[in-house]
Amino acid sequence: MYPERFDNLPAQRAVTVHQPTPMPPTVQVSAPLVPVQPSSIPAVASVVLPDGRVVTGYAINPMQPEPVAAKPAVSHTAVNVALGGVGFLAVCGGLVLLTAFIAALAAFVHQLIILAAVIFGGFIAAQIFGASGHRGGTTVNIRKAVIKRNHFHG
C-alpha cells in the first residue's frame, strides 16, 4: 500500500538515459525519379523511441511573424477632443438621470402629503360626525315621551 522507502539519495541512484536512434530513410525503387527543386519538399526524418515506436515526420522551421505595418500617428489634440466629447456626453446623461430622479422623488413626496391629508381629514370627520353619543347635550326620545298639557313627562 505504501511505496518502498529508499534511504539512499537521488544522486546515488543509477540513472538510465535513452537517446533516440535515427533510422536511415527508405528509398522506393518502383517509382521513377522526377527532378524537383530541393526547397519544395523537406527531408523526412524517422526516430526510434525507447519503447520501440517509430516516429516519422518533417522538420518544421519556426514561423517568422510578419512585420506590423506602421500605424499613422494620431495627434494628441484629436485624442483630447474625443475624450472631452465623451466626458461631456457622460455628464449630460448623468444630469438627465439626476433630474428625472428628483422629479420622481418630488411626485412621490407630493402623493405622500395628499395621502396624509386624506387620512387625517377622514379621522377628523369621523370625530365630528361619528355616532358615538352626544357629549354634554340632552338626549330626548320623543316616541317614548308622554305629552300632557305642553309638558314632556318621560
Describe the structure.
Helix content is 35%, strand content 12%. The model has no long low-confidence stretch (mean pLDDT 76). It has one helix at residues 76-129, and strands at 21-23, 44-48, 54-58, 146-148, 151-153. The chain is an alpha+beta fold and 154 residues long. It has one helix and five strands; from the N terminus they run E-E-E-H-E-E. A hairpin with a 5-residue loop joins strand 2 and strand 3 (54-58). The strands form two sheets. It has a three-stranded antiparallel β-sheet with strand order 1-2-3, with no helix packed on it. A two-stranded antiparallel ribbon has the order 4-5.
Per-chain topology:
Layout: E1 21-23, E2 44-48, E3 54-58, H1 76-129, E4 146-148, E5 151-153
Antiparallel strand pairs: 1-2, 2-3, 4-5
